[in-house]
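ok, trying the design again with the full structure, not the truncated one.
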């Protein structure tokens, strides 16, 4: 019985997605719960669910429970709308445990009907657009997802794929296992089984591109990332580029000695995500490959400013300043590095300066694509459901709509437009914590750190989360106020003991204080 709870969630995501709904993934939900310090199995109050949904820009929450005596299964489900808040009636279905898949299909259809009395599909039409699954295959798939070791996971997932050879989900999950093991030769054929119409197709194609880079096939990687970029630009509401794709495309081009477009692609990635140090670092490597030491030093210095805790960024900055003969800048950078990391704490750089291609091993390929927000920007229902008009049209209004549009514009790097949207969200809802936090990010990118602090404090006053506290700590570090940053991080860890970003940053501060270094 252990797999049924997870199975019902997965089935709900699949059924709603096939019916044209835009649904957050299991991982997306868990990531947000982790920010709140909540375990994946926590029983949440409706108020907490609403807070999480608002942070995710979700229009509806699906929740419920099930009971079973081992023979019969009863499932209860409800919809909770976020804006305006409304709780819909409970939908209940009972039947033999062996009929779980069919029972759940009827449950989801009835649940959609509670949100829209004019839902266009009959039960028969709704069931017809769903992929028929055997319970045995579905059970093996869920057990594979829940397995604690790769051997068991692969065994269960492959059994699910054997029982349902045309079902892409086990194939994608198997590809992911091999991908995480860096076994691209095994991962590629499984990822290739994921069709373009599948919800995970973007992740599968992205992983194929990464594998081509890992296998030393930059020409094929460039083809993959170029096609993926063009496809997403065609389908994205905001038309925004994604920095992970641009970065990896640039690396593929650089490995083919096509440096000009490589610099353009990676530079665009850095503009879109100004907090990530990997992009200026990769640009620094490109300049170093072309023996442009002054430009390389500028990029490595930018990487250090974005991520002061990365010793590799510092090591390359010192190397380029030394080779460029910039003695005063080198002395200042070395003193700052020793204060931060201690003497001899930086990594040794081993590459052949006479053969710049040896720098390739230092290039930072992005292994994953952040798709939680991406998936919600994709236009329209899946292709196979367009003709059925199966989607329930849910038009968000007020603060939720402005917040969502603002985040799309922020992701595209359009700060002025994004700021307008976030301020409009606050006009609609003056207590919207998310809008204050996003305004803080805009101020931070513009270097207006005092204003960023004020917005983050307003956000925390409305909704206290570990993510907001950690962001505030980073702003304090930018202001050279480590003591204030430490206080915020301690509060963040208290709120969410498992929040990795806060724990890692606090650990670094504690280590720096213990060694007497500057933070």
């Amino acid at each position: 019985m252990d797999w049924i709870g997870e199975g019902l969630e997965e089935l709900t995501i699949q059924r709603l997605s096939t019916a044209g709904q835009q649904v957050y993934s299991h991982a997306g939900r868990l990531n947000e719960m982790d920010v709140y310090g909540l375990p994946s199995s926590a029983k949440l109050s409706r108020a907490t669910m609403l807070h999480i949904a608002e942070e995710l820009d979700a229009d509806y929450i699906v929740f419920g429970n099930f009971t079973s005596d081992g023979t019969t299964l009863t499932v209860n489900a409800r919809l909770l709308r976020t804006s305006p808040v409304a709780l819909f009636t409970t939908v209940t279905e009972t039947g033999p445990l062996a009929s779980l898949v069919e029972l759940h299909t009827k449950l989801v259809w009835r649940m959609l009907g509670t949100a829209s009395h004019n839902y266009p599909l009959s039960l028969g039409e709704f069931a017809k657009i769903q992929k028929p699954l055997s319970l045995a295959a579905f059970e093996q798939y869920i057990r594979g997802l829940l397995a604690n070791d790769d051997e068991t996971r692969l065994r269960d997932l492959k059994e699910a794929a054997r029982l349902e050879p045309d079902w892409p989900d086990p194939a994608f999950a198997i590809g992911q296992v091999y991908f995480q093991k860096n076994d691209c030769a095994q991962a590629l054929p499984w990822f290739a089984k994921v069709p373009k119409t599948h919800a995970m197709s973007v992740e599968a194609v992205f992983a194929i591109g990464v594998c081509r880079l890992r296998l030393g096939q930059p020409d094929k990687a460039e083809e993959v990332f170029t096609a993926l970029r063009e496809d997403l630009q065609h389908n994205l509401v905001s038309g925004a580029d994604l920095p992970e794709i641009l970065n990896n495309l640039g690396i593929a081009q650089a490995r083919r000695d096509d440096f000009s477009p490589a610099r353009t692609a990676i530079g665009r990635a850095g503009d879109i995500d100004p907090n990530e140090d990997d992009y200026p670092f990769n640009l620094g490597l490109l300049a170093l490959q072309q023996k442009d030491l002054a430009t390389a030093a500028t990029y490595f210095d930018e990487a250090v400013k974005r991520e002061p805790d990365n010793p590799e960024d510092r090591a390359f900055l010192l190397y380029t300043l030394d080779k460029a003969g910039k003695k005063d800048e080198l002395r200042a950078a070395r003193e700052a590095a020793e204060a931060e990391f201690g003497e001899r704490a930086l990594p040794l750089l081993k590459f052949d300066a006479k053969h710049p291609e040896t720098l390739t091993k230092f290039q930072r390929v992005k292994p994953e694509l952040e798709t939680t927000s991406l998936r919600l920007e994709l236009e329209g229902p899946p292709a196979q459901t367009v003709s059925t008009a199966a989607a329930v049209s849910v038009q968000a209004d007020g603060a939720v709509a402005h917040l969502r549009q603002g985040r799309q514009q922020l992701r595209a790097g359009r700060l002025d437009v994004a700021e307008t949207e976030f301020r409009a969200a606050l006009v609609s809802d003056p207590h919207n914590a998310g809008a204050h936090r996003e305004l803080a990010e805009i101020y931070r990118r513009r270097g207006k750190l005092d204003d960023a602090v004020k917005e983050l404090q307003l956000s925390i006053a409305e909704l206290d989360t570990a993510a907001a506290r950690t962001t505030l700590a980073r702003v304090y570090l930018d202001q050279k106020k480590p003591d204030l940053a430490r206080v915020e991080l301690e509060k963040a860890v208290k709120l969410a003991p498992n929040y990795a970003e806060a724990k890692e940053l606090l650990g670094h501060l504690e280590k720096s204080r213990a060694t007497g270094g500057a933070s």
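Keeping the full-length input from now on. Residues 195-362 form a domain with the Serine Threonine Protein Phosphatase 5, Tetratricopeptide repeat fold (CATH 1.25.40.10).
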